Amino acid sequence: MPKLRTVALVAGAVLLTRQALRRRIQVSPLWPMPALEEPTSGRPRSRALRLLVTSREIVADGVVQLRLEGRDLPRWEPGAHLDLVLPSGLVRQYSLCGDPEDTSSYTVATRLVVDGRGGSREVHEQVTEGMELEVRGPRNRFPLVEAESYVFVAGGIGITPLLPMLRALPENAGWRLLYAGRERASMPFLEEVEKLGRDQVTVVEGRPDLDALEVSEGTAVYACGPEGLMAAVAARFPEVRLERFAPRASSDGNTEFEVELRRSGRTLTVPADSTVLTAVRRALPGTAYSCEQGFCGTCQQRVLEGEIDHRDELLTDEERADSMLICVSRARGDRLVLDM
Length: 340
What we know:
With 340 residues, this protein is an alpha/beta fold. It is 21% helix and 30% strand.
C-alpha cells in the first residue's frame, strides 16, 4: 500500500506540473525553450466571440455594412473598433459605427479597396448573411474626450468611428464636421450625418480646404481617413487625435539596421525598404502575423536591447517599454535584440 500511495502522489505531482507548464506556455508559447522548428508567437488580445452575420447592406458606392449579432456582448464607447477574423484567417480592424448601448449586435462598415491586401475584397465577396465570424474586442485607442467644443474631419469611410461620437455629443456641445469624399454617392452615412446638424456639417467632394476650419482654444479635433488627409490635418492642427488606416510613417524616413534573434542565435539585416517581420520570417518561417498594419497585435515580440521606433496603433505605454509589433515598428538606432 505505501508503494501504491507513493506512485499516486508522484502521478498527481506530474499531472499538476504538466497543467502548470501548459498554462505558462499558453501565456508565452516559446517559454523557456529556444526557437522551435515551427515557431509560434503572438496571442489574442481579448476574448474571441463567434457572431452571426444577420445583415449585409450596401450603404454607399463600394461600401458594405455588416450587422453581427450575439448575446450579452461587451459594451463599447465611441471610437472603438473590432478585430474581424475573415473566413481565410486574415484579421482586419473595423471601427464600430452602430449603437454603443446595443449589447445584442455590432455594426461595422468597410470600403472595397481594389488594389489592397485582400481583406476588404474578402468582406465584399465572401462574407454573407447567415455566416458566423470570429471577432475580438472591442478595443478603443480613439476615445471621445470631454471638451468645450469639437471639430471632426472625415475622409470617406473615415466617418465610421466619428459617427458614434457625433451621436454621443451632449446637446449643448458646439461641434463642426468636415466630411470629404470623391463624390456624394461614395460617402457612407451621409444622409444621417446631415440630419444630425445641417448647419454644423460641411460636405466636400474632392480635397477639403482645411484653412477654412476655425479651431478655438479648448476645441478637440478628431480626424479619420486616408493617410494624405491625416498628414494634412496633423500639419494644420498638431494636437489632433487621429485614427489611421495605415501605420504611421517616420518623419526621418527609414534606415537599415540589424536584428539579433537571441534564442535562435541569428543576426538579420532589415533593409530600409522592408520590415522586421519580413526579415524574421525568412529566418523563422512559422512566425505568426496577420494584419501587417500594427493594429492586431499578433506579431508582438519582446525586445531585450535597443531603442524602438514604435509605429503601431495598439500597444499601451507599458507594453511599449519592452515589446514591439515587428510588422511596422523599427529600430531608432542600428540594432535591436529580440527574445526569439
